[in-house]
Amino acid sequence: MIELAPSLLAANVLNLEKDLDEMMKNGVDTLHYDVMDAHFVPNLSFGPALCKDIKKRFPACKMDVHLMMDNPDKYLSVFAEAGAYTITLHQEVLPDPRASMESIKKLGVRCGMSVKPGTKAETLLPYLDILDYILIMTVEPGFGGQKFMADQVGKISMLRAAGFKGDISVDGGVNLENAPMLVQAGANVLVMGTAYFKADDPAMIAKTVKELA
Fold first, then answer.
1. pLDDT tens digit string along 115-134?
2. Is 171 in the active site?
């Protein structure tokens, strides 16, 4: 089954509990939680306090915490304690990627690594044995609502051909039009922000994604 991971960036922050309650009722239990520091990416977003509050209110929610920030190792324990299900770091900022992944695993959390569009997926190959999760960015990270970069899809098929058996997620401009292509390439987790939270019928989006093969 293909997993839908709505992006918190596109939710209505003034009605967040309502949006997340509807998400869970639609059978979607994974939330993509972007953390931005205004250094690695030109934007600011959520911190660990909100992560903790969401986990307390929705204990069944699996939060994929995506740290789009410099020095992410300093925040691993705080997000693990806040309830992260997966913590994903960017390969571009890690001086020792394997050590960072090992640190996440020691906290009892799944470890993930992400690459921006300009970073080759081959940089992930030395770490496939330790990774639970790979996040392929199909837009430049920092803002929601950007146009999907189709030339990034080859990274997914390359990683599958290299033998990666874990989750491959795609984030950036993902919608029902390009979802089948992503699944065919080997992705099994689809991050949708605007396409889900701003949809007229989010339940239909959730049902359609689950039925993709």
1. 999 999 999 999 999 999 99
2. yes
Give the count of beta carbons closer than 10 Å to the beta carbon of residue 49: 10
- DSSP bridge partners of 35: 67
Residue range 183-194, pLDDT digits in tens: 999 999 999 999
Q: For helices 16-25 and 48-57, what crossing angle results, to 10°?
A: 50
Q: Which of 37, 64, 167, 171 is catalytic?
A: 171
**20 contacts 7 by C-beta, under 8 angstroms:** no
Q: Buried b vs exposed e over 124-156: b needs ≥16 C-beta within 10 Å? A: beebeebbbbbbbbbbebbebebebeeebbebb
Cα–Cα distance measured from residue 124 to residue 131, given in angstroms and rounded to the nearest whole number:
9
pTM metric for this prediction: 0.94
From 34, 37, 64, 167, the catalytic residue: 34
For residues 97 and 127, is the Cβ–Cβ distance under 8 A? Answer: yes
